[in-house]
């Protein structure tokens, strides 16, 4: 194959091309050696690697140009997916709210629409693209202290509230289901730390945590109360059955201290669920007779 160099013309033979190539190779080798020697001399003299010095204004202008180029490229990528993003955000959300970015990303994943980087959609890239296109504004971040204070107020009024109910109660706050569950769990954990009986028995944290704390407090003040009397003194917004209250009282009584045989007999008498059932059957027989 015959090479043609534009600077040398068509009539240049192979021998001349070989000479020029050898000279160019030797020149590149000499340049490399001179640069390496200069860098080594600079490093030995100043103790630093050689760097090209630029002014602050030049570096600032270069950084601004780089940021502008990145924004332009990101906007072009977002414009290519405008139709898909508008379709995903047009669906209704939960509890009468606009659809979340995570739910919109799941819609695109169900239709097998790849993200700009060739992967799956998530809440982050969906939010970034929607904000770039001006379709949705990103929710303003709420301080964690404010969230905890509001959740604590709601939990004091409704200690049996769940994460879904909390989101319905506070629709103005950007509160996800996972964060709502964690904040409610913090309130329950703080309440159990003030109850020594809760730690001693080892109950779990659930929707009836506040009810267990109230039952244990009533039992501590009045250990002679039966399940019915404790149930009458409870102030709960949800229904609690009598056998459940008697079970909690029995667990409190067992974890309180070591008991004698007479105390065990009295405990079975006061906290046994069969006692109230016998009374109910007796009253029914009297009514029938």
Structure write-up:
- With about 290 residues, this protein is mostly helical.
- It has four domains: about 1-40; about 70-135, no CATH class; about 140-195; about 200-289, no CATH class.
- The chain is built from 14 helices and no strands.
- Helix 7 crosses helix 8.
- The chain is elongated and about 120 Å long.
- The termini are far apart.
- Residues about 275-280 have low confidence and may be disordered.
Set down the secondary structure blueprint.
Elements: H1 14-46, H2 56-80, H3 82-89, H4 101-110, H5 123-133, H6 144-157, H7 163-169, H8 177-193, H9 196-201, H10 209-221, H11 227-233, H12 242-256, H13 261-271, H14 273-288
Helix pairs in contact: 2-5, 3-4, 4-5, 6-8, 7-8, 10-12, 11-12
Rg calc: 38 Å
Taking pLDDT < 50 over at least 5 consecutive residues as the criterion, the unreliable ranges are 276-280
The overall pLDDT, averaged over residues, is 81
Strand content: under 5%
Summarize the structure.
The protein has helices at 14-46, 56-80, 82-89, 101-110, 123-133, 144-157, 163-169, 177-193, 196-201, 209-221, 227-233, 242-256, 261-271, 273-288.
Keywords:
mainly alpha; 0% strand; 289 residues; single chain; 4 domains; elongated
């Amino acid at each position: 194959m015959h090479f043609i160099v534009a600077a040398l013309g068509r009539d240049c033979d192979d021998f001349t091309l070989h000479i020029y190539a050898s000279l160019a190779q030797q020149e590149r080798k000499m340049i490399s050696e001179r640069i390496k020697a200069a860098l080594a001399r600079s490093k030995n003299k100043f103790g630093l690697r050689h760097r090209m010095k630029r002014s602050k204004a030049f570096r600032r202008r270069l950084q601004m140009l780089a940021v502008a180029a990145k924004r332009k490229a990101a906007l072009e990528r977002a414009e290519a997916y405008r139709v898909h993003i508008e379709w995903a955000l047009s669906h209704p959300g939960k509890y009468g709210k606009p659809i979340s970015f995570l739910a919109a990303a799941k819609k695109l994943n169900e239709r097998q629409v790849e993200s700009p980087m060739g992967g799956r959609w998530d809440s982050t890239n969906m939010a970034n693209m929607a904000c770039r296109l001006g379709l949705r504004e990103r929710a303003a971040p709420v301080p964690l202290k404010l969230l905890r204070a509001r959740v604590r107020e709601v939990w004091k009024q409704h200690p049996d509230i769940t994460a879904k109910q909390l989101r319905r109660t506070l629709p103005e706050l950007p509160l996800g289901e996972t964060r709502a569950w964690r904040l409610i769990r913090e309130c329950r954990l703080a309440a159990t730390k003030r109850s020594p009986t809760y730690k001693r028995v080892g109950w779990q944290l659930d929707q009836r945590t506040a009810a267990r704390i109230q039952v244990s407090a009533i039992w501590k003040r009045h250990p002679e109360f039966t399940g019915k009397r404790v149930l009458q003194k409870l102030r709960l917004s949800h229904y609690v059955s009598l056998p459940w209250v008697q079970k909690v009282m029995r667990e409190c009584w067992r974890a309180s201290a070591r008991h004698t045989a007479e105390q065990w007999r009295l405990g079975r008498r006061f906290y046994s669920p069969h006692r109230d059932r016998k009374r109910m059957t007796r009253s029914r027989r009297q009514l029938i007779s």
